[in-house]
Amino acid sequence: MVEIGKQAPAFSLYADNGEKVSLKDLAGRKVILYFYPKDATPG
Length: 43
Prior knowledge:
Blueprint: E1 12-14, E2 20-22
Antiparallel strand pairs: 1-2
């Protein structure tokens, strides 16, 4: 788990438009990572 205020590990994911985005592509910008429970679960 990443602690608040600490750097996130390098990762890549696909944006909603299907384009691959890497954290390194966002270097120098403020980024907010938001995680939420899987749909239809009691989270």
